[in-house]
Design brief:
Order of helices and strands: EEEEEHEE
Structural class: mainly beta
Strand content: over 45%
Distance between the termini: 18 Å
Radius of gyration: 15 Å
Mean pLDDT: 85
Low-confidence stretches: 1-7
Length: about 90
């Protein structure tokens, strides 16, 4: 399998015997600093959005992205910080 970077998207290409094409995804991130109520969303193509908010706003942001086909691939947390890697099948 080879992986190429295309506009912030990983595009896996199958090279196996069966010739099947694997799923491809685009990725984005959501970051929340809960002590300062800062929410940042970065999506492919340089689309960055910044919000102020707490739990309700984070849920609203994740729900909005879910409605656009995004799901959570991973989440990391440390101290006052949460970081979600979002993915959407292309």
């Amino acid at each position: 399998m080879t992986i190429k970077m295309v506009l912030s998207s990983w595009v896996p290409v199958a090279t196996g015997r069966c010739g099947a094409t694997m799923f491809t995804y685009e990725f984005g991130v959501v970051e929340w600093l809960w002590d300062t109520n800062a929410i940042r969303v970065n999506l492919p193509g340089g689309d960055e959005r910044v919000f102020s908010g707490s739990y309700d706003e984070v849920v609203a942001v994740l729900s909005e992205l879910g409605g656009q086909g995004w799901d959570v691939a991973t989440c990391a947390a440390q101290s006052n910080w949460l970081f979600w890697t979002m993915r959407r099948q292309r």
